[in-house]
Amino acid sequence: TNQWFLPAVRGDIPPGCAAHGFVCDGTRILVFGGMVEYGRYSNDLYELQASRWLWKKVKPQAPSNGSPPCPRLGHSFSLYGNKCYLFGGLANESEDSNNNVPRYLNDFYELELQHGSGVVGWSIPVTKGILPSPRESHTAIVYCRKDVGSPKMYIFGGMCGCRLNDLWELDIETMTWSRPETKGTVPLPRSLHTANVIGNKMYVFGGWVPQSAGGEISAPDGEWKCTGSFSYLNLDTTEWIGLISDCQEDKSNLLPGPRAGHCAVAVGTRLYIWSGRDGYRKAWNNQVCCKDLWYLDTERPLAPSQVQLIRATTNSFQLKWDEVPTVEGYLLQLHADSPVPPVAGIPGTGVPETSVLSSQGGCSLHQSPQSLPSVPYPEMKGDHPSQTNNLIPNNVQVSLSSNSKVEGKEKVAAPENKVTQEAMKNHADATGFKESNAPSLLPVCASSAQTSANVGELHDLDKQTVNPDASVSSTVSSTQTMVTQQAVKTESSSTNGAVVKDETSLTTFNSKSEGAETAYVMPSARVNTGQTNDSHSSRAPQRPPAPVKARDRRWYDVGIFKNNSAVVSQFYLLPEETLNINSKTGGADVPDYRLLKKQDLFPGTVYRFRVAAINGCGVGPFSKISEFKTCIPGFPGAPSTVKITKSVDCIHLSWEPPASPSGNILEYSAYLAIRSTQLQENPSQLVFMRIYCGLKTSCIVTAAQLSNAHVDYTSRPAIVFRISAKNERGYGPATQVRWLQDMKTSGSK
């Protein structure tokens, strides 16, 4: 929301302080030292439980081999594991706070934390090597390479009468200090800068630097200025890379202005920079505090989770996927089992099946909340801040490639739902890039009578009710009674069992095999065709699958979505000439959606989906492919309002009839996910046992049945039930309910 709020804190609220130490450990924050009221230096330690906004003053034990840290400011306070590391700072030798006698420190302390809340005490580690020189207003970060599990703390810069730009390394396991040799151009000496680790890079921004153009270390009374220079240190190769130089002009105010004493925090792969002092004015009392918030996307986002089905109708899907932190939106694509005819005579471009959306370059810098557009690093340029309130800010630069080469670049933006076609055409692009406005949400079809299976989660309480707002299955073909959430390209069989393709697939049974209880997992991912029920086939004949040419198996854009959910009833068709070009070149630009025609979804058709996240650096990799089938008219909807009542030796399962029965309900079936040897080989493939079949809308699940239940750990531990209804056409989609278990309960199952 980009909105500040002031929490109502309580407890031992600390006094306002400056130049303190600050670490975040999960949902708690630790604050140590700093300058408090009347210029007094502090060595108090406070803990804030952010989940309750509760402050607490904590008193660590003193070290066994020395005195606790003295009052100080400008120190570094770094967290790794369950320990904080305190280094250096500035102390006042005078007992009178009005008479400051500065003393620079280079002492080193370790603070052990208790799990969740509280601290154990201070200790003074015995270190080897040469300690860094005394300093204050420096930075310290901790980094641990993935292939070498030895954490190291890096100290850079600071102030000790004059500014410093030396780099020090502490091996935390051996407690050995050293000065690593670096390559590249070392940043200017500085203090009151920030340093943050993202991946294997330490990003250094701002601070006080020498006024002289050559950057020589000045005398203590030399002239200094604030800088907006920006560099990073590759911590694996110890090479410095400059991103923004100190003398780089920024007449359009597209970059953060020079500043010192600001704060910076890394959230995922995004770096936020807030406030600071503007030091261009020489007089100390004329400095101006900055009130702007910026962020830097340092790399393309990770792939989202696999697309999940919430609800399916005859001509639409409601989909969702897990959120990716700090992204601007998501690109959703599909391709169908049946060939989709290309559209002739429409200018535009398409996305080939083999293409991968990528961004050439590294970082992209933005001002928040005004969504500052940009181009890839190292130029660090940007567009003028957008004055519109688009759901997807006009700051996403996208390049498309199937062979790591950029074939073309366009900006992709999505307006608000109410933006008209005319308004989109009139929207100006400040950079001169061709803008393509994709709708944030495609038109939502009215819900048809047939819905897909619903998903709910019930906690382990005495009585629970779930009104499912999500679903996990598609409809059943006429020749089978197998309900699946994903990959429903199955056919009926005379066998009592059927294949479960993934954790959310449900196998129900043909009316001829009502006595069967257990569904078995076959080696194949699909059910082989056996003897079909001819009477069912005559009621809803299946369309024979059409042969699909390689050229027709294309990925089509559904659109760009602000949030991690979408209602899909249409997708964009690609021009025929674009398909022909793409089949030869293997690459394409991002299409202009305004020039493309839309294709409605068909009933009873399998569609494959994938999604990619978008940030300022471009479009990230796509998720794994999911497969869903639109419903076939005439089948009953999913049961709703599932309730679980717990008794001493059993549970009572009840539900409401489908809102759209599409005829008379002949029976209900309830299923329980059970343990099996196949689950050990492939934990993502659940096996279900039918525990009830009848006309009643309730059943008893005995303790003996529950003792055989599988506890699913894909998210929170839960026992999985599914309930489906059958009419004259056959079984419809199922409602899935996850009955949440606490760790003690789930461990005993």
TrEMBL record:
A Gene Ontology BP annotation from the UniProt entry: chromatin remodeling
Annotated ranges, domain Fibronectin type-III: 544-633
Taxonomy, superkingdom: Eukaryota
InterPro entries xref list: FN3_dom (IPR003961), FN3_sf (IPR036116), HCF1/2 (IPR043536), Ig-like_fold (IPR013783), Kelch-typ_b-propeller (IPR015915), Kelch_HCF (IPR059124)
Record organism: Lanius ludovicianus (Loggerhead shrike)
Chain positions covered by the region annotation Disordered: 527-549
Residue ranges with Polar residues bias: 527-540
Organism phylogeny: Eukaryota, Metazoa, Chordata, Craniata, Vertebrata
Keywords: Kelch repeat, Nucleus, Phosphoprotein, Repeat
Chief localization: nucleus
A Pfam cross-reference name: Kelch_HCF
Protein name (record): HCFC2 factor
A single GO molecular function term of this UniProt record: transcription coactivator activity
